[in-house]
Design goal:
The protein is of the alpha/beta class. The chain folds into two domains: 24-154, Rossmann fold, CATH 3.40.50.10130; 170-238, Orthogonal Bundle (DNA polymerase, domain 1). It has helices spanning 35-42, 70-78, 82-92, 113-126, 137-154, 170-179, 186-196, 199-204, 207-210, 218-229, 235-238; strands at residues 24-28, 46-50, 57-58, 63-69, 95-101, 131-134. The chain has a six-stranded mixed beta sheet. The longest helix is centred in the middle third of the chain and has 18 residues, at 137-154. The protein starts with 23 loop residues before the first strand and ends with a helix.
C-alpha cells in the first residue's frame, strides 16, 4: 500500500524519541512512487500529495525543494531547462533549495566539467539557491526531514497545507483564500495580499496588474483570470448528452 494518498494527510506513528508535534510535508504527486516518500513515512512525517507547479516538496511557508537526480540535472543542463526551473523556484519561495541526488556528477555523461561547474556556480551566485548533495533517496528524505524539523519546530513556521480552515486568524484566512488560486503558493499569496491589500482586489485585478507581483508571470496571471472569469458548469450538466 502506498504511504501517501492524494489530497490526504498520512498518519504515521512518530519514532521513539521524536517530538510530539508531527512534521508535515507537501509532496508533488509525481514523487509518490519514489523511495523518498516511503522514507519520509518511516520517519513519522505527515505527507500530503498535491499537484505542484513549482518544487517537488514544500517544507514550510517559505521553503520549497526541487529534487533532481544527477542524470536529470545533467540533462536539464543540455536542454536548458535548469535555469528556468530554478528561476521559478526562486520567484515562488523565499528559501528555495535544490537537492542533487546521486554520484558521478562529472563522469556520467559526455558533458564538459566546466559546464557542470558553471551551472552550479549560477545556482549559488546568480540565483542564491543552495545545492545539497544526497547519495540516495534515503539521504534525501533525511535532508528534507531535517529542514522541515527546523522550520516547523525550531522557528515555528507553518506548512501551506490546505484543509478545513478551522480557527484561523483573519490574515491566515485571507491567505488561505488566495492560495486556492491556481499556482499560488503561501509565499505568492502573501505577496499578492501585500500588493493589493484585500482579497477582493486580488480577485478583481486585471492580468497586467497581477503580473506586477514578483513570481506572477504571463501564463500564471492568464490562468488565474481564466478560473475567476469562466462560467461555472456543474459536472452533472457537462455529462448530459
Amino acid at each position: 500500500m502506498s504511504p501517501v494518498r492524494d489530497e490526504k494527510v498520512l498518519e504515521q506513528k512518530t519514532p521513539e524519541g521524536m517530538a510530539r508535534k508531527k512534521l508535515k510535508i507537501i509532496a508533488d504527486r509525481r514523487e509518490i512512487p519514489s523511495g523518498v516518500v516511503n522514507e519520509l513515512a518511516k520517519l513519522g512525517t505527515d505527507v500530503e500529495a498535491r499537484q505542484l507547479d513549482v518544487a517537488d516538496f514544500i517544507l514550510s511557508d517559505r521553503v520549497g525543494v526541487e529534487r533532481k537526480s544527477v542524470e536529470d540535472f545533467l540533462q536539464s543542463i543540455v536542454d536548458k531547462r535548469l535555469l528556468e526551473q530554478v528561476k521559478l523556484l526562486r520567484e515562488t519561495f523565499e528559501c528555495p533549495v535544490l537537492v542533487l541526488e546521486g554520484s558521478d556528477l562529472y563522469s556520467r555523461r559526455a558533458i564538459h566539467p566546466n559546464a557542470v561547474r558553471g551551472a552550479l556556480a549560477a545556482l549559488a551566485v546568480d540565483f542564491r539557491v543552495p545545492t545539497l548533495p544526497a547519495c540516495d533517496e534515503k539521504e534525501t528524505a533525511f535532508i528534507l526531514f531535517a529542514i522541515a524539523k527546523r522550520e516547523q519546530m525550531t522557528v515555528c513556521r507553518e506548512v501551506a497545507i490546505r484543509g478545513e480552515p478551522k480557527g484561523l486568524t483573519l490574515p491566515e484566512f485571507q491567505r488561505f483564500v488566495v492560495e486556492g488560486l491556481p499556482g499560488i503558493s503561501a509565499v505568492l499569496a502573501k505577496r499578492l495580499l501585500e500588493h493589493f491589500s484585500t482579497v477582493e482586489r486580488v480577485m478583481c485585478a486585471p492580468e497586467d496588474e497581477l503580473r506586477k507581483v514578483r513570481g506572477i508571470g504571463r501564463e500564471r496571471a492568464k490562468e488565474i483570470k481564466r478560473i475567476l472569469t469562466s462560467i461555472y458548469e456543474s459536472e452533472d450538466r457537462q455529462q448530459l448528452p
